[in-house]
Records
---
Amino acid sequence: MNLKEIENPIAEQNFRHQLEIEESKNRQRAIANRIVARIKNQKL
């Protein structure tokens, strides 16, 4: 991403929104992994 894009408030907003989406995906994946691990531990 170049400086002109960052100077543009809409591009900045989209960029931050994209980061938030990535963070929430990672959070959901982490929660899912924890649940799967818990289920596997119960079976053992």
Note: The mean pLDDT is 87.
---
Amino acid sequence: MRPTERYEDHEHVLREIMRSARTRQWTCMPGHFVSFDAGTCTAVVQIGIAGQQTSDGVSTAVPYPVLVDVPVQFPRGGGAALTFPIAEGDECTVHIVDRAIDGWFESSGIQPPSSKRRQAISDAFAVPGSLSKPARLQNISTSTAQLRSVDGKTYVDLDPTGQVVKITAPGGLVIDAPSVKCSGTVTASGEITGNGIPLSTHTHSGVQSGSSSTGKPQG
């Protein structure tokens, strides 16, 4: 008996065919990082939603196998990039590509397909940042843009309305540069130290009345 003869309603047959086809299609899924290799910028990723396996009419949730050598995508362009220190358990979105990515991933540019496979779960990219309810960020600013730690204690805050940039860093701020230029007024509420000499308490040698200049600052 042909499959179409099992149903009197051909529209139902078409719906069943489409439903069956959709079960073999991949688009994107939530997941989490099992491990991350910063040298190759690839990761081992676990899909966050289990598959279903049916036996004797009983469906059982079965986790998918981990995906290995998954390219991790960070925002990048024009010679600049934004990276994150990915840790085990961090959540991500797994994007499944329509065609095999092997050739493109190795050589970039426009490459011939390395395989005839289509929408295979092994052809995936991982984008960090998906957040389930338990992992959601707290105390999100609704008026400024922030580059921040997850706990919100350390951040760079850009206020587009007030045109102000604020840096909050409880552990300190380190600038590694041959020179620093400032075109405006610098105001400091704490101590300023230059070459080991504090500004507010330093003294000068060779102090005399009149028009003479003092000697160099002393600590």
Note: The chain has two domains: 1-135, 137-194.
---
Amino acid sequence: MLLLALCVICSYAKLSLNQQVMQQISQSFMTLELNEVESMTYTVPLDHFNANNQNDFDIQYFVNKKFLDANDPNAPLFVLLGGEGPASPKVLQNNYVIDSLAKKHKGL
């Protein structure tokens, strides 16, 4: 019983530490300026399998160059795929993993 109580206490302490770290990360990325994010589009065929169908549509995407080392031709590119909600530059806010990786590796 004592061992169980000790495990619960240790788990709670670790969870609290993780929550503090996530809170710090969240606060640091809340400062993202939307003017740092470019909205762009590219055109793709509506039907890739029918050569007679000339219809196409634009796919919107967003680029944040905040952490990019433009002098490094091997800088990594990190991609966040959405598609389940409205498109907005805000999709690049508070995506802890993407932002952390881009900052650490000076990527796009």
Note: The chain has two domains: 1-30, 32-105.
---
Amino acid sequence: MKYPHFRHTVTGVVVPLSAIKSRKSLGIGEFADLPMLGRWAASVGIELIQILPVNDTGFETSPYSALSAFALHPVYARLDDFPEAANPGDIAALRSELKNRRKKPGTVSTVSGITPGNINFDTVLAGKMRILRSMWKNAAAADIKKAEKWAKNNPWVQNYALFSLLKEENELKSWVEWKEFRNPERKDLSRLWKKKKDKALFWVWLQWRLEEQFAAASRELDSLGVALKGDIPILINEDSADLWAERDNFNRDFRAGSPDGQNWGFPIYNWEYLRSEDYRWWRDRLNQAAKFYHAWRIDHVLGFFRIWAVPKGDFSAWNGYFKPSAPVTRVELEALGFDTGRITWLSRAHFPGNELREIFGDEAGLVQKMLEQVGSEDLWRSRPDGPDEKEAAASPLSVEAREALYPFLRNKTLLSTGEDSFTPSRNYQSTRGWLSLTGDEKLNLKDLFQRKLNVSESLWEQSGRELLSMMKTDGSMLVCAEDLGAIPPSVPGVLQELGILGLKVTRWSRKWDEPSQPYIPFSDYPELSVATSSVHDSTTLRGWLAGEAAEDNELRGVLGLKEDADLSGSAGVKA
């Protein structure tokens, strides 16, 4: 969709599609409910609606854990609008079941184990899929032909259909656990399609119909003068059609995370391979999104500059580092006087025998078997190939011993990033190796690390500019970046240069270093900004006012309210 390019400040609303429920929807907000919200928005002067991702996540309720970067979620289907006839009794029965479940708030989901609130996600999805399969049996031959023709213009759907069918045949297990078809080549996929086409066509037909419904809703919003803003996550689930069928696009040796220890579990991209294909996969993904959205939110835009990459054998992120980064080479370390033995001392976790025996007691011998001894010394160290955190977790050690072992495994001054290349660990200044250095050695290493950081920041700027320029190639959708967190110096300039909007969240946009931590005036926000009170993983506006901000007199001043005003009520919201 073409963004209308308003010449004034635009007011918008953010809401998950799942929450836009109407009398016609079946247990959850549906694509066909968007125009209803659009009519209300137009009537009160709201010109943009932002929703969360609507890709197929299966029974996973998080919209950021998709089974496909392209496919839409069947849970948002409006069954009554399908041309294929459904048994009215089936829809009525599902509606009745959902109504009864709402009266039993303690009911626990059989698939996710989550106690549902207003949305019984698993029940809605399972019920809709059951009815959709019965509809598929009524699909006209001419419509199936149309769906096949549509598939030729949407090549992603064939792999998605095969993946969905095989996942179903494997009891919804991840493809890494399948006994067959775990690592298909393109020729294998072609043969598999011929073999399973009759069954897989259900998923093609379903995506064709879902696209019809979503596109129709988007066109109606467009006619109302209301823009639709989508949310495109930077990362994709390992258990997805994209990784299963096109794994060359990804680097499965690493998982994305953040320096504060968060491991998100999603594989990072193989940008070198993607570049060799002129970013075909990403361009296809954005072209698919442009069928529905006038604008889109780049999730974690910082990841296009540099991503915190965590070795796949770890479940925490403490041994991660930014990719790309300028490496510290063995030659450079040797030039500073560090020989092979001392480089090993800095880059591997070491365990003095007395500490092993004191901390692990009777289990010290089990820990030693996972390590290698340094000569004949009473000193052990990690092997070149481990152990990593997952190996330690799978060991016969007690829970207490495993928990004690993890900090040892993270106690490395340098992290190996390749043959004869390293990078400083996040907490290198508190590591055993660092504390053993002389003052001059520390100064020399710090100087080397700073020089590498300077080079890395240039790499990050280059990476961000290249990737974000590619994402703006079409130019039809307005691009908005989620640029929260520890921002590299180059990010604001690149976003400004490319005309990409940044994000300002009122509650976090404060002058934190000043007394009373005043809010940054709205007039000081960059013109190219999305300003909001809340994001999808924070409390709502009312929740913020009633909770975290309840005692915030600085905010009362900004809102023009008295110090004793109750922010939890309508006064705070209306202000």
Note: The longest helix spans residues 186-223.
